Amino acid sequence: MQAAGNDFMVVLGRSLPAPERGRVRAWADRRRGVGFDQLLWVEEPEGGNGVVRYRVFNADGGEAEQCGNGALCIAALVAKRRSNGESIVLESPSGQVEARVMADNAVSCSLGSPQWHPGKVPFLAHGQPSPYRLKAVGGSWEFDALSLGNPHAVLGVPDVAAADVAGVGAALSAHERFPQGCNVGFAEALDGQSLKLRVYERGVGETPACGTGACAAAVAGIRRGRVRSPVQVHMAGGRLSVEWPGGEAAVWLGGQIDSVFEGSVRL
């Protein structure tokens, strides 16, 4: 499945043992395996209704806490397998989210409220106030750090096309002051309600889109007064929408998904 070019292998089952890291890497290989940015390991509830639990594995085999575009894909897939049109509750290691499926493969998902406290990200602030600054790749980079169920650093840039996503993104993603690593977003404000965004995803590299990355960039931009809700986030793979009224309110991510193919793989 894919959402804005962010692609996934989705495994549905009940109480399946999670794959070993090496097997995830083999499946993620785009020449010798299936190929994907993330593996979504989904446990369907007995009887087909109830909370749908899932785990997220990056292409390098490491486990992530949350994936916004992945949640959109899971919600759309589960909705097709249910007879009712009610909202769907999904649960990952970062907690529960609510999803709604509309017409034309459009899905929206509540990812909870953004967490700004350094300990919640986690980020070792060492008493440094936000916005933070770190030295990497021969420069000093200012960013906002926050969590949307997984850690993010958001850099405001004047031209996202010229941003050193591979160099600066990789350096900040693996910086020692992010104990669990982070996703690094490079955001360019276009006007009052739109952003251009590129994201270096932890354990993957630059991807065509990132759902939680879009949310992080939008709420950081709203908080700084660069944009206002709802925000259209334009990425190489497509467009996602983000709504956040501010404060402790939940962030809603919206987009369209596509089921590319179905198959079987030996476990």
What key attributes describe this structure?
single chain, globular, 267 residues, 2 domains, eight-stranded mixed β-barrel, Diaminopimelate Epimerase, Chain A, domain 1, alpha+beta
Describe this protein's structure:
With 267 residues, this protein is an alpha+beta fold. It has 2 domains: 2-112, Diaminopimelate Epimerase, Chain A, domain 1, CATH 3.10.310.10; 118-254, Roll (Diaminopimelate Epimerase, Chain A, domain 1), CATH 3.10.310. Helices cover 16% and strands 37% of the residues. The chain has 4 helices and 17 strands. It has helices at residues 21-28, 68-80, 165-173, 211-224, and strands at 2-3, 6-13, 38-43, 52-58, 63-64, 88-92, 95-101, 106-110, 132-136, 139-147, 151-156, 183-191, 194-201, 205-207, 231-235, 238-243, 252-258. The chain has an 8-stranded mixed β-barrel with strand order 1-2-3-4-6-7-8-17. The longest helix has 14 residues, at 211-224. The radius of gyration is 18 Å and the shape is globular. The two termini are 19 Å apart.
